[in-house]
Amino acid sequence: MADKTEKKSKGFFAGVKRFFGRIGKFFRDTVSEMKKVVWPSKKQIINNTVVVAVVVVVAAVLIMVLDAVFGFGLNQLLKGV
């Protein structure tokens, strides 16, 4: 049986051409996707930044308190031994 599929050229330049073609397609697709991005407003950026800063401070205080409590408990446990 004869193979009806057409063979692509496998030369060096064919591979180089496909490589640069894929790079070009990547950049075209990237530009296309960047046009679809909806960027946040300045007010949203400031609000989100404040929320993140508050959560970081609260988490830091919570970890500091837990560290102090567990450290105190461990010191009391070791003193008793």
Automatic annotation (TrEMBL):
Its membrane topology: Single-pass membrane protein
Major subcellular site: membrane
Alphabetical GO biological process terms: intracellular protein transmembrane transport; protein secretion; protein targeting; protein transport by the Sec complex
Keywords linked to the UniProt accession: Cell membrane, Membrane, Protein transport, Translocation, Transmembrane, Transmembrane helix, Transport
Subcellular location: Cell membrane; Membrane
An MF annotation (GO) of this entry: protein transmembrane transporter activity
GO cellular component: plasma membrane
Membrane-spanning residues: 50-74
Keyword Membrane applies: yes
Lineage: superkingdom: Bacteria
Primary role: Essential subunit of the Sec protein translocation channel SecYEG. Clamps together the 2 halves of SecY. May contact the channel plug during translocation.
Similarity annotation: Belongs to the SecE/SEC61-gamma family.
Classification via NCBIfam families: secE_bact
Cited PANTHER family: PROTEIN TRANSLOCASE SUBUNIT SECE
Subunit structure: Component of the Sec protein translocase complex. Heterotrimer consisting of SecY, SecE and SecG subunits. The heterotrimers can form oligomers, although 1 heterotrimer is thought to be able to translocate proteins. Interacts with the ribosome. Interacts with SecDF, and other proteins may be involved. Interacts with SecA.
Name of the featured protein: Protein translocase subunit SecE
Gene that this sequence comes from: secE
